[in-house]
Amino acid sequence: MRAENPVVYDPEFVFYYGVKGAWQIFSHKEAKQVLGDYNSFSNLFIPNLGQNIMGRNLNQSDPPDHKKLRSLVAKVFVPSVISRHADWIRQQCEEIIEPLLEKGEMDFIHDFAIALPNRVIAQLLGIPAEDHAQVHSWVTTIVTNVKTMEEMQASFAAQQQIANYLDKMIEMRRIEPKDDLISHLLASEVNGERLNNEDLLGTVVGMFLAGFETTSSLLGNIAYTFCHHPEVLDHYLEHPEDFDNIINEVLRVLPSAKSMTRVAKHDLELRGQQIKKGDYLNIWLISANHDPEVFPEPDKFDFRRPNHSDSLSFGHGIHYCFGVPLAKMETEIALKVVFSRIRKLRIKEGARIEMTPSTIITGFTRLPVTFSAVGVYQ
Asked: Which InterPro entries match (predicted)?
């Protein structure tokens, strides 16, 4: 498909917010062009459907609003702020993995890849522990593929429920600020301006999605990769300094974000196709990352590739994912803890693996594994 039809229209493609029909972008060159050209392609792709609150956040904004939003978020969602929680994240990893050691098996997704980022982003935002499971349930409903009217309504309902919940959290922090990201956002200013209520709510929802889904998918995809390429896990254990290269190759092969969306701002031509103003474009990052014109032998896992910077795993241009620092720090801590306690990670024999049914997320909903426990974590 990528070689023969790098840009093709699919009238049956349905987005989770209800829009039907979109240009499908499969090649790296065109994907990078669309993602980087904010003068021709807009991020304001979610219609104002009243009940849909997902359109009011950093990832669905254009300049100049985007610059203001990003400047505010950058003050609180940066490594210097996130790294203050490193010891706490390490403690959470230990608490999660410890009860699993005696069993010698687990569903890596449910037992670890969901449990850890759910705790972390909820802690950073100040969400009480007793509400973590409910908030995660809403997020799962939002990112799952929409195929029927019932599923569309369920997605809208989940968006409204998480919005109502976080709106109450925001109001509580206005009255009683704490040391969490919501309180810091409320206090942040750019040129004397603060976020209005609408932008604040959308930004908090966006931060939760970026902080949870990016890391959860990455952790699961790493485990899957280590199971299929045990030599890569062995190399990581002997050479942890290669962490970045290994993670970058996992992200190229299995990008946490499977696709991104844009809307044409004006009529234009793209790879010989006539794109009309208002047309939707679905950019397949996972396809672009497997384009042999950019990545020779694209299906081969090779963490020594010299051009990982060409990967579009976290997007490109001004909308590059702001959740990257948290995802990488959290993942590095998690790998150190997990693989100080276990070895011989394998897919459980005869077990069923389930991929996430989503055009947005690349990941798994079920990944049963077996392992051998080793000594106490130091």
From this structure: Cyt_P450, Cyt_P450_B, Cyt_P450_CS, Cyt_P450_sf
